[in-house]
């Protein structure tokens, strides 16, 4: 265990970061690059959930599935199929077989001190680390302590104490259950339904509300539900588990089936039997084990942004976003504050609010930036919207035979600039950044019309969208 660097016998660092996910790593990297010292404390794998149990493995699984699906909708190509063992091998390779040595070296090469162990606060600017070897060390921060501890899964009360899967198991799947019930209809549920079905599970989704991906424009739900249904997934809306029984449940390890069959009785009184259940019911900041109470604080103080000047919580732990790129943005912003020329830059607040960008890697992909129509109206904007089907635009229609896609923009009448966009389509994630730039820079519609999309690309959707809202 590396608790001290050779030049730092007092365990004193300018910045102490608890949690070595992408957000903690980015913060440590940026402050060290600007001349401060940083310790990065991690009790599991350096790289965080994102690298081993969330973004990276899920996208490693989904990309070949997307290519296989494209091959089924392109005449001139023989449809290709998924080979489950090869797909799992690809996932294993992309997560470095769940070893983090290379990632730890990368951090150390940058000049960051990586400290293996569980970190908790034990006073102002003070962090106690319980190492896996049983030793305890105290680290002292000259400037700030940052909590970048990520999230834990929400467990609905009816599943308390019953061993079932959460998203970690689904991304690390080793045993493919023949019958899988997924509870939830958000990004985890929709993405995991796609890869588990492709791996051979017969998937049933229990969705409490009437929509999939309910945080996006309402048209998204129908498009994704149609595609998941076509893949053989049974989606049951307005349903949730009222009773769960798994007599021989046992935790055999991450990604392994956790015992014998599970019987679920729904609120409507139906009984469903499955070989595994995946809870995709949201996640909450992992703040329970950092001992905020030791410095007179609680998790509510984090969520209400009521922290002393020496303590920050960013990334998923901060409760504002649960997206890697948004957390990394916060880390870059905080690093800039900490390394600016101001005498006490930590007195500044993280007050910049970029538009939120997100891509859900279903097929078609769902990409969004900024506000939906409903959210814009609720925020008091006077808006105009435009929508277009990919099939109606020559460049986009060439993506696949019978292409499935739709785009929508939300324009603020006062500034005549975009405040939101949603793109659903085969490669929509790669198309999003044009919309993100338009929203972030508040580019007026007439100026956007001067950026001429190439024929025949899917970006030609912009011509139609902007004509609809143009003066
Ligand atoms: C299945 C799934 C797929 C996702 N896909 C995407 C995607 O495609 N794109 C996207 O933008 N977002 C995605 N997300 C969300 C994304 O994973 C998170 O937003 C991201 O991981 C947040 O990064 P973080 O650094 O804040 O936390 P994490 O990546 O969760 O890292 C936190 C780290 O802190 C460590 N830690 C916690 N407590 C302590 C402690 N007390 N002491 C020491 N170490 C500690 C943990 O072990 C962990 O390594 C996905 C989430 C899930 C569940
Ligand atoms: N590609 C991506 O960007 C990506 C992929 C996966 C996850 N994520 C992020 O990770 C986080 C977690 O994702 P998620 O899909 O688990 O969360 P979510 O909050 O987006 O969705 C949770 C779903 O579970 C349902 N639910 C909640 N409690 C329930 C209960 N007690 N019983 C039945 N249903 C219940 C909700 O109605 C919703 O459908 C999100 O913030 C998400 O944006 C992002």
How would you describe the overall organization of this protein?
With 471 residues, the protein is α/β, with parallel strands linked by helices. Helix content is 30%, strand content 24%. It has 15 helices and 21 strands. Strands 1, 2, 3, 4, 5, 6 and 16 form a 7-stranded mixed β-sheet that branches. Strands 17-18-21-20-19 form a 5-stranded antiparallel β-sheet. Helix 1 runs parallel beside helix 10, helix 3 (55-72) runs antiparallel to helix 4 and helix 3 packs across helix 7 (187-199). The radius of gyration is 24 Å and the shape is globular. The chain binds flavin-adenine dinucleotide and nicotinamide-adenine-dinucleotide. Nicotinamide-adenine-dinucleotide (NAD) binds at residues 156, 183-189, 191, 208-209, 240, 280-283, 322-323, 358-361.
């Amino acid at each position: 265990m590396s608790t001290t660097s050779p030049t730092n016998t007092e365990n004193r660092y300018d910045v102490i970061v608890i949690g070595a996910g992408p957000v903690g790593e980015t913060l440590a990297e940026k402050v060290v690059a600007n001349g401060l010292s940083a310790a990065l404390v991690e009790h599991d794998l350096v790289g965080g959930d994102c690298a081993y149990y969330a973004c990276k493995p899920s996208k490693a699984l989904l990309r070949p599935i997307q290519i296989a699906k494209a091959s089924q909708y392109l005449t001139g190509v023989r449809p290709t199929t998924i080979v489950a063992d090869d797909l799992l091998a690809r996932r294993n390779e992309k997560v470095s077989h769940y070893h983090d040595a290379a990632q730890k070296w990368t951090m150390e090469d940058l000049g960051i001190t990586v400290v293996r162990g569980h970190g908790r606060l034990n006073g102002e600017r003070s962090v106690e680390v319980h190492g896996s070897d049983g030793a305890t060390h105290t680290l002292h921060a000259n400037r700030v302590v940052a909590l970048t501890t990520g999230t834990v899964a929400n467990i609905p009360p009816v599943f308390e104490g019953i061993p079932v899967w959460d998203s970690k198991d689904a991304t690390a799947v080793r045993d493919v259950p023949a019958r899988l019930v997924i509870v939830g209809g958000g990004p985890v549920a929709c993405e995991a339904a796609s890869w588990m079905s492709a791996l051979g599970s017969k998937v049933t989704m229990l969705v409490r509300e009437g929509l999939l991906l309910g945080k996006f424009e309402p048209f998204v739900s129908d498009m994704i539900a149609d595609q998941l249904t076509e893949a053989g997934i049974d989606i049951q809306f307005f349903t949730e588990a009222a009773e769960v029984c798994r007599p021989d449940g046992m935790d055999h390890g991450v990604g392994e089936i956790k015992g014998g069959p599970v019987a679920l009785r729904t609120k409507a009184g139906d009984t469903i039997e499955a070989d595994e259940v995946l809870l995709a019911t949201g996640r909450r900041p992992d703040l329970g084990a950092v001992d905020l109470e030791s410095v007179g604080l609680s998790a509510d103080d984090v969520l209400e942004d009521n922290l002393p000047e020496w303590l920050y919580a960013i990334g998923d732990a901060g409760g504002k976003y649960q997206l890697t790129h948004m957390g990394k943005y916060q880390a870059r912003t905080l690093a800039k504050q900490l390394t600016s020329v101001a005498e006490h830059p930590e007195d500044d607040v993280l007050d910049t609010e970029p538009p939120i960008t997100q891509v859900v890697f279903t097929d078609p992909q769902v990409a969004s930036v900024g506000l939906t129509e409903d959210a814009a109206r609720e925020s008091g904007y006077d808006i105009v919207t435009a929508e277009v089907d990919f099939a109606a635009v020559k460049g986009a229609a060439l993506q696949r035979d019978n292409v499935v896609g739709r785009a929508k923009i939300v324009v603020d009448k006062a500034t005549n600039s975009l405040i939101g966009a949603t793109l659903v389509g085969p490669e929509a994630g790669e198309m999003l950044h044009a919309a993100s730039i338009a929203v972030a820079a508040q580019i007026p519609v007439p100026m956007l019309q001067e950026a001429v999309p190439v024929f025949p690309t899917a970006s030609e959707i912009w011509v139609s969208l902007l004509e609809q809202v143009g003066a």
